[in-house]
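Saturday, quiet lab. Running sequence design on the C-alpha cells for the scaffold JK sent over.
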C-alpha cells in the first residue's frame, strides 16, 4: 500500500455525535500511520455558541490521547457553512497530499474503514473513469446475491468519501454552464437518470435555497461521465438521521449495519452492474423527502418565478 491518505473530519455543534465518531475512529486499523485533520466551524447563531465550544472541548481532548499518527485541529472564528468549509478545507489538504478521505461528525466507521478507503484510492488512482470512493452503501436487495466486494454507481456519495486532487481540481464550483444545462431538456433528463432529485437540488443550489458542495461535486461528475466505487458491505453508519443535523431530517431508512472484522478486499474494473445500479437509483428515489422534492420545487418556481436565475 502506498503512503496513506490523510483523514479529514468536519464538525460543528454536535458534541455527542462527534464523541461517538471519534471513539470509533480511534479503533480503526491503520490510524497509527494516518494524519488526521479536524475542521471545526464557528457558530452561526448565538444559541449554537456553547454547543460549538463543547464540540471543540471534545476534539481537543481527543487530540491529546488519540492513536493517530498526527492530529491537527483547525478552528474557524467565523461560520463558513458546510459547503465553504468542505471546499476550502479539502482543497488545502488535497494540494498537500494529492488524495483525501473525508468524514462528517455524524458518521461511525468500521474497523477496516481506512483499509478499504486507502486500498480503493491506490487501486483506482490511475483509472480515470473513477471519480470518487464511498464508504457507505444502503441496504439493497440486489446486494444479497451480489458476489463482488465493490460495485460502481453513477451517483456519488457524501457519507464517508475519498477522491484525488486531479479530479477535484477540475470542478467548476460556480456551475458556470448551469443556464445552458437548464435550457437543454435532454441534459436535465440525463442528470435525473443518475439521481431522481438531482435536477431540483441543483436548481435549489443555484437559486440560493440550499448551500451544498455535494450537488456541485455530483454535477461535475455527471458532466465528465465518471463513477463512484461503493462497498458491498457498508463501512459507514450514519447516526445523524435523528434530526439533529443542520442539513438532515429524522429518518430510519438509511440505517445499515457496519461490516465486521478485517478481511481481504478484491477491487474490480470500472463497470456498472445494471441490476445493482438500478436498485441503487430506485432505493434513493423511494425516499419520502426525495419523492416530494420535485413537488416542492414546482411550488417554489410558481411562487418565485420572477426571482429565478433563468428569468427572461
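Result came back. Writing it out in full:
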Amino acid at each position: 500500500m502506498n503512503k496513506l491518505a490523510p483523514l479529514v473530519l468536519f464538525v460543528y455543534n454536535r458534541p455527542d455525535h462527534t464523541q461517538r465518531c471519534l471513539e470509533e475512529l480511534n479503533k480503526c486499523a491503520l490510524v497509527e500511520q494516518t494524519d488526521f485533520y479536524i475542521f471545526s466551524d464557528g457558530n452561526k447563531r448565538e444559541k449554537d455558541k456553547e454547543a460549538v465550544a463543547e464540540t471543540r472541548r471534545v476534539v481537543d481532548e481527543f487530540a491529546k490521547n488519540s492513536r493517530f499518527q498526527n492530529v491537527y485541529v483547525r478552528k474557524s472564528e467565523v461560520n463558513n457553512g458546510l459547503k465553504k468549509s468542505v471546499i476550502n478545507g479539502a482543497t488545502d489538504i488535497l494540494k498537500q497530499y494529492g488524495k483525501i478521505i473525508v468524514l462528517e461528525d455524524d458518521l461511525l466507521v468500521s474497523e477496516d474503514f481506512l483499509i478499504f478507503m486507502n486500498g480503493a484510492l491506490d487501486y483506482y488512482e490511475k483509472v480515470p473513469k473513477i471519480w470518487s470512493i464511498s464508504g457507505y452503501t444502503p441496504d439493497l436487495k440486489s446486494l444479497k446475491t451480489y458476489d463482488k466486494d465493490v460495485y460502481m454507481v453513477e451517483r456519488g456519495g457524501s457519507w464517508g468519501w475519498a477522491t484525488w486532487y486531479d479530479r477535484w481540481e477540475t470542478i467548476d464550483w460556480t456551475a458556470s454552464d448551469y443556464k445552458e444545462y437548464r435550457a437543454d431538456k435532454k441534459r436535465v433528463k440525463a442528470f435525473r437518470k443518475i439521481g431522481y432529485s438531482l435536477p431540483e437540488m441543483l436548481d435549489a443550489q443555484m437559486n440560493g435555497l440550499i448551500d451544498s458542495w455535494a450537488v456541485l461535486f455530483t454535477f461535475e461528475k455527471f458532466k465528465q461521465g465518471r463513477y463512484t466505487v461503493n462497498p458491498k458491505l457498508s463501512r459507514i453508519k450514519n447516526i445523524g438521521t435523528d434530526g439533529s443535523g443542520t442539513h438532515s431530517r429524522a429518518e430510519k431508512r438509511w440505517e445499515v449495519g457496519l461490516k465486521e472484522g478485517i478481511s481481504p478486499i478484491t477491487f474490480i474494473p470500472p463497470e456498472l452492474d445494471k441490476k445493482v445500479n438500478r436498485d441503487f437509483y430506485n432505493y434513493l428515489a423511494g425516499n419520502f423527502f426525495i419523492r416530494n422534492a420535485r413537488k416542492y420545487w414546482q411550488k417554489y418556481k410558481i411562487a418565485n418565478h420572477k426571482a429565478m436565475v433563468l428569468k427572461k
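Notes for JK: The mean pLDDT is 90. The beta strands are 7-11, 35-40, 70-75, 99-104, 107-109, 130-134, 150-153, 161-164, 227-231, 236-238. Ask whether to fix the surface positions before the next round.
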